[in-house]
């Protein structure tokens, strides 16, 4: 029985993780979870998983309300609450399914407590990849990817040696605007951006797919997860999202992982690794539904944030934290209808070019960088008014 702590239980990855756990109650036991503001969902989960003794919510008022209803539970709140969950002793696997920079500290804490980490929060690697990898080495902790592309690569690497890898090929759907020119992007709306053709995901990641900032982050994520240099990471636009990523070996053999665009597959593999469990949803993937698969090279001029991934990733330091902090803030301004779609790219690139570089940042310096980047974007927005 694997005991699981889940951060972000009410989000897109979180609810699918709950689905996987509840279909394999003989394998997994949920011992603690966090939700943001979805208190109703917290109530349901408390009832569904009576062995849960500790939870965390976003704000103090909600925590107080739930404490009255469920006096036998320990209820934390805020970013500190997430760290408290990571510090628990009675669990094996830490699933981080929250979005954003706030995922970094809890992951570091879980690693320090020698827990296996199943990671959907790519921002922890984008912003603090060096800290996370060093901590994993120091505490002998394994990190399993939940991100579908990285799960695919992880699966394609099984039984092979990294020394024999020529390159990894990360596939990208191209997001909701992949067929639009840059001129056509000037006045696109939030609703159009949120309409992803293949995957149902949270708001931020859907916008990040449309700018390909998500793919940029995934390139950096792959670099840290698999210890592979950036010139051995390729991105290929593959609009069907059937091939979830590939590994090319030195004998020119390419191994691909293929399947439905269903996040429960990578979630379940990260939880059950090295075993594979029965999948409980409808039908397996059917090739005859996809008689044609397409692959094209991404255009860096069309998707400048993707090119930034290689610049930011190779230079390292606090640049990942700058890029992510600026993007988090810009996407939230876009989702609030305050800035235009193309402003996201402009603000992120300007932040990268403006905010002071730190070559070997500490955790505190990354936190400061994150604040600076957000403030920079907010100021840009005010200037534009
Ligand atoms: Mg992904």
Q: Whole-Å distance between the termini? A: 56 Å
The ligands bound in this entry are:
magnesium ion
Rg on CA atoms, Å: 20 Å
Q: Structurally, how many domains make up the residues?
A: 3
Largest sheet: 7 strands, parallel
Helical amount among residues, as a percent range? 40-55%
Q: What's the oligomerization state?
A: single chain
Give the overall average pLDDT.
96
Structural class: alpha/beta
CATH class of the largest domain: Alpha Beta
List SSEs in N-to-C order: EHEHEHEHEHEHEHEHHHEEEHHHHH
CATH architecture of the largest domain: 3-Layer(aba) Sandwich
The CATH topology of the largest domain: Rossmann fold
Sheet-strand content, in percent, reads 5-15%
- Say how many strands there are: 11
Describe the structure using short key phrases.
385 residues, alpha/beta, Rossmann fold, Rna Polymerase Sigma Factor, Chain: A, 3 domains, seven-stranded parallel sheet, 15 helices, 15% strand, globular, binds magnesium ion
Task: Provide an overview of this structure.
The structure is a single chain. By secondary structure, the protein is of the alpha/beta class. It folds into 3 domains: 2-145, NAD(P)-binding Rossmann-like Domain (Rossmann fold, 3-Layer(aba) Sandwich), CATH 3.40.50.720; 148-260 and 284-307, no CATH class; 317-385, Orthogonal Bundle (Rna Polymerase Sigma Factor, Chain: A). It is 46% helix and 15% strand. It is built from 15 helices and 11 strands. It has helices at residues 12-23, 39-48, 60-69, 78-86, 104-112, 123-139, 148-157, 190-193, 203-211, 213-226, 264-272, 304-315, 319-335, 341-354, 363-384; strands at 2-7, 28-34, 54-57, 74-77, 93-96, 116-119, 143-145, 165-172, 233-237, 243-249, 254-258. The strands form 2 sheets. A 7-stranded parallel β-sheet has the order 4-3-2-1-5-6-7, sandwiched between helices. Helix 1 links the parallel strand 1 and strand 2. The longest helix is centred in the C-terminal third of the chain and has 22 residues, at 363-384. The N and C termini lie far apart (56 Å). Magnesium ion binds at residues 147-149, 218.
């Amino acid at each position: 029985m694997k005991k699981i702590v889940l951060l972000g239980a009410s989000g897109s990855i979180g609810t699918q993780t709950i689905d996987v756990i509840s279909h394999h109650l003989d394998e997994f036991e949920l011992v603690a979870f966090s939700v943001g503001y979805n208190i109703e969902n917290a109530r349901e989960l408390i009832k569904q998983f009576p062995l849960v003794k500790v939870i965390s919510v976003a704000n103090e008022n909600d925590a107080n309300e739930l404490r009255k209803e469920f006096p036998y539970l320990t209820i934390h709140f805020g970013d500190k609450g997430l760290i408290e969950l990571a510090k628990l002793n009675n669990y094996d696997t830490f699933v981080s399914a929250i979005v954003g920079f706030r995922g970094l500290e809890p992951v570091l804490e879980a690693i320090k407590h020698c827990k296996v980490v199943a990671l959907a929060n790519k921002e922890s690697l984008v912003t603090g990849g060096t800290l996370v990898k060093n901590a994993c080495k120091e505490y002998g902790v394994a990190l399993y990817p939940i991100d579908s592309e990285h799960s695919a690569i992880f699966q394609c690497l099984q039984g092979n040696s990294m020394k024999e890898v020529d390159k990894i090929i990360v596939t990208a759907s191209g997001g909701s605007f992949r067929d639009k020119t840059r001129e056509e992007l000037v006045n696109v709306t939030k609703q159009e951006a949120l309409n992803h053709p293949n995957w149902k995901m949270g708001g931020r990641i859907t916008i990040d797919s449309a700018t390909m900032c998500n793919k940029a982050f995934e390139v950096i994520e792959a670099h840290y997860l698999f210890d592979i240099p950036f010139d051995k990471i390729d991105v290929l636009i593959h609009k069907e999202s059937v091939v979830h990523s590939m590994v090319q070996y030195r004998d020119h053999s390419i191994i691909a992982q293929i399947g439905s665009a269903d996040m429960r597959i990578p979630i379940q593999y990260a939880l059950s690794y090295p075993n594979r469990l029965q999948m409980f949803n409808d039908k397996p993937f059917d090739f005859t539904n996809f008689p044609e698969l397409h692959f094209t090279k991404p255009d860096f001029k069309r998707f400048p944030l993707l090119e930034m991934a290689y610049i930011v990733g190779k230079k390292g330091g606090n640049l990942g934290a700058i890029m992510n902090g600026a993007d988090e803030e810009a996407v939230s301004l876009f989702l609030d209808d305050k800035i235009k779609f193309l402003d996201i790219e402009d603000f992120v690139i300007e932040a990268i070019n403006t905010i002071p570089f730190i070559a070997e940042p500490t955790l505190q310096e990354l936190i400061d960088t994150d604040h600076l980047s957000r403030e920079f974007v907010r100021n840009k927005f005010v200037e534009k008014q």
